[in-house]
Design goal:
Mean pLDDT: 83
Shape: flat
Helix content: 40-55%
Distance between the termini: 48 Å
Number of helices: 3
Structural class: mainly alpha
Low-confidence stretches: none
């Protein structure tokens, strides 16, 4: 149960509720890319994998970046 007030909505425990994006919401860029690629995405993915297995270093880098992205360095405090 929520109550509406001048300061916003609160739930039963008195916490403010902030409506966020709905689950599975996609950006305009994502929607445009999906529309552009259509049904070709699967074929392009398979072609990139075949090229990587054949020794194409650019295709291999593309595939590996998707499988295991480069991680940010872990900062360890020394003091």
């Amino acid at each position: 149960m929520t109550t509406d007030g001048a300061n916003g909505s609160r739930d039963r425990k008195g916490r403010f509720t902030i409506p966020g994006k709905p689950k599975r919401a996609r950006s305009q860029t994502t929607l445009a890319i999906e529309k552009l690629l259509g049904n070709v995405a699967t074929r392009l993915t398979r072609k990139a994998i075949k090229a990587a297995l054949a020794g194409d270093s650019a295709a291999l880098e593309l595939c590996m970046d998707q499988i295991a992205p480069v991680r940010a360095p872990l900062l360890i405090p020394l003091a």
